[in-house]
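Repro:
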Amino acid sequence: MQIKRLISAPDSSFFLFGPRGTGKSTFIKTIADNRTLYIDFLEPDTFRTYTAFPETLIKVTDALNPARIIIDEVQKVPPILDVVHKLMEEKKIHFILTGSSPRKLKKTGADMLGGRAVYCRMHPFVAEELGGFYTVRR
């Protein structure tokens, strides 16, 4: 069962931060289409590849020519943001970057894409989203 969120994705590139379990990954998968490249750093092979060689993203982008790239759990590979910055400038690709907190990225000195990506925050569900899935007992 999937609960519809009362948020919408910005038209520009954006970071989507929020606590674990709020539905960030589920939400971004609903806006992906056949021109979207989805990269999940929770997959061990993907994590190892991009940690060792962040520039792999340039090669994959050249080969697949996606209109949009989603990087889930971006905080796990902070150096990827330098490559994202380059691709945003040179190829005008739209990025969606998710993570639980910008704190880890900032601590590592990662490129936070100043002004190139909107910061969005996903909070836990609100009553209107849950509708009839809950009741208040007194």
